[in-house]
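Ticket #4471: structure output looks truncated?

Reporter: J.K.
Steps to reproduce: submitted the chain below (1086 residues) through the standard prediction queue, then opened the result file.
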Amino acid sequence: MAADAPIGGLDSLQHGPGFLCIGGSVAVPPGRDWPVLTLELDGLTHRIAHAFAFPGGGEARAFREDIPWPGDAPGFQVTLCADGLPLATADGARWAAFTPMGAIEWFSQAQLSGWAYDPAQWLGGPDLALHADGAKVCDIPLNATRTDLLFGARFRGERLGFFLPAAVLGPMLDGIQPFGDGLVRRWSLVARGQEIAAREEVLPARARGGLDVWEGGALRGWAELEPERPPAVILALDGREFPPLRADGGRFALPLPHSPTGRPTLAVSARIAGEAGALPGSPVTLRHLPLAPGFGAGAFRALSRGRPRVAVVIPIHNAAEALRNCLASVIAHSAAPARLILVDDASTDPAVAEILGKLQGRAGIEILRNDRNLGFTASCNRGIAAAGRDDVILLNSDTEVPARWIENLMAAAWSTPETASATPFSDRAGAFSTPPVPEGMSTTELSRLCAQSSLATPPEAPTGHGFCLYLRRDAIDRAGLLDAESFPRGYGEENEWSMRALRAGLRHVVDDRSFVRHREAASFGAEREALLRAGREAVDARFPEYPALVHAFLADPQMAAARWRMGGAFARPAPRPRILFVLALEAGGTPLTNLDLMRALEDRYEPFLLGSDGTVLTLKRLESGALREVEQVALNRPIRLAEHASAEYDRAFAGLLTRHAIELVHLRHFAWHGLGLPMVARALGIPVVASLHDFYMLCASLKLLDATGEPCPGCCTDAPGQCRAELWPEAEVPHLRGAWARRWREQTGAALAAADALVTTAPHVRARHVETFPGLAQADFRVIPHGRDFPRLSAARTASLAGRPLRVLLPGHLDTAKGLGWIRAMALLDEGRTVEFHVLGTAQGTFSMPGLTIHGPYPRDEFSARARDIAPDIGAVLSRWPETHSHTLTELWAAGLPVLGIDLGAVGERLRAQGGGWLVPPESSPQAVLDRLRAIARDPAGLSRRRIQLRAWQQGEGAARDTAAMAADYDRLYRELRARRLAFARPAPVEVWLRLDLRESPRAEGCANDADSAVIYRPVPESRLAAALAGDVAGVAILCDSLASPALARVLPRLRDRRCTLHPQARAGEIDPAPGWEVRAPATPA
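Returned output as attached by the reporter:
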């Protein structure tokens, strides 16, 4: 060896997960140039990047090289070379497993610092954690360079140190809250399961602080620890902790321009992160917080001029399975008016061509194919150009969209005139990501949770995110297309466009009412990180303000509040779609029936109720069958009959719809609400069902009675006097005839035409509305009779009438429209000699008299018992107006009483259809009606025939037409309306199945209703199965304890010609299946 030759050696050969670590030293004689040092290993030449001088060691230097190595533990020899000449060789037997090293150098409430040397942290995946008494507390990031360590000045810039100041450390240790608890703990640093450092510490609480009062739209306080080491403060709002706040400069603040929960009262407590005790001044309850108005009014104002058509543009390059899932969700959930533009950027995967081929020629779907690969951004631009004047949603092919995704994004994008774009939240979208999502929920359920927790006040962002980006066409006109030249493969193109839009005076929002799943980079794979880095550098260079805007966005308390609300929502069970029922009155048959419907639907929908007295809107939610007030909105100017419309009402209603994530509106009555209500919902993409329970939309008189109290055909008779608008103060009522009547129908006709479907309860009501509004003949206008639940249907009373008066029961609140004038006149004529009239309810301005007894009001569920106490022979419904259903007729029949009725409206229709009573002409005099009653008393055979007819009704329609049957009919309509709005899907027909629970302990589990499916399960008891089967049902789902269940054996012979699915709790037993039967998996393990 030459005298000036370097010398060297290999001291250690170590391996770990994903790396090799080789250490040694080299020395050269004085004055010689330092050689190029390399390591030869298994055919690979690795250049040693940096050799470290020994303190006082002259020209001798050490090296320690971390080399990526994906393979197993090596066994080959390693040679150290200088300028290509071997200096030393180590054989393969010297390889040993690498042992991580490290230290905890400083630990207090102010900071945790130290170091760890383990190449696996940057070559094999980070796995460094802090443990307390053997249990993991938190992960430790390596975030500091340590040039003071011999192996610390890494050539590649790896960081070996960690430094966690108080504002970071406190939240990380908050799970055990060690500061100030007085406990001695053994704290250890653990890398890849190996303890590399440890120390015992008691951590005293040294921070101080306090919570101030809420003022100036913010919650404020102070907290101090050490200079340059401010602590973090954790606020709990209504018992749920908000993300930590830094107390920079000794102060902390949480902006609260409005309540973060959507409720005016907020309980607040504060503490230092890592400590258990509350700060002075907390807890405190804030009251009368302002509520966020939401963007509903702005979105309605813009969209009321017409909802824009949207083109969904999906650039495609391979990734067939992700594309298949994406398209399935887009087709299933995209509402019209929409187009789907698929841009295939020269995919090489034949599965992509197969997928697109199946969609070729399908209405609303356009497929564009690039002859060569143009790149992601150019493909986006091609789709944008093909969209013409439509708004555009750029959607990655690795996403999955939920129901109402277009409606929600459109409302957010059009919430203000200057909004350019809207981006949803996602599970994997960087700064646009939600908290961790719960497992087992669908994308629609997650999006619904986001929407239902939102305040409809979307945070602003400096940029949209390209995984799913709604772009308004007017914004594209101003900002131009994406920059395909600078960002050909994506990653940065949406940020650059967004900044151009910002500089043009536009804005971007993050729609916290929307959630879209994102798989991330299915088309780019491992290149993603490099593409991200290059795109960010280009945007930063072009827009110097961009880094500061992003920093502010990441710290935005409105984004934190949105995620905080989502975190609370994600802890709740799977949500149900929300339906808003709109009512005027809170008393009477319609509100009670509406509550029946809400309760029957509560298993699959979350029902809300909006009431109005013309001045205050009151929103309530049904919770476990009971209504609870949620919000009130006062109008500055009340709704008045003369105009019955209000821009203020429309804005308030739009706000309620968006803030509370309503998905369908069922308008049960227009009185005291703005006639613009259906137009507001339609503008926001929310379907509307309008019910007609009276004739209010034909004439404000409500019941089509003229000034004399006589029936009016609805075309304004010449009877003297002023017709009365029953629901309105007389001073506010215009002359109801002539010109104003025509004006009234112009307004109401437009409101009805704006509804997606109409419902009434009797054929004559539908016919009369179609006669007045001929355009409704082509509308979805259904007749859905009311349903009632009766624990039992009473047998008819058969007591002899010989020698006593006929006892007639008249239920309800009787007034002129209900025939009270006739009843009084008949009582005066007869004085109880042959007929006794018994009013179970009230009679307007009337007291008991001979032949007429007023029994007073009754709770609805006590009607049959009260009727039995009175012991009537028959009932009577003597309404002077054409009733639209008559609950009293149903109640009388359920109580076993044949009924005398006026041949008008639903009373006449039902008595003619079912029997069970007698009809008298509407022009009859009181004497004529009295004579008919006397004749009934003298005709026991006729009475007996009516009782037989009544019993047939009880065993048929009376048994089958319960609230579950009514709810199934309405639910079918709701689901069909939601499906009808889809742009590309061909939804399956909605079917109603009977749900028969034969288990010894019936319960809700099994065949549960899902409002997003095409199957409705209508519960029916076995005693009413035969009656229910006579209706429109597709089949029977039977839940049983086992296939050997005696109850099942009893029922199955009746179902041989029916489609059935059997759902046994356990598999025990066998059956002889019939065609169309299917045995499904047990509901729970046996």
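Triage note (M.O.): checked the attachment and the full token line is present. The chain has a mean pLDDT of 92.
Status: closed, working as intended.
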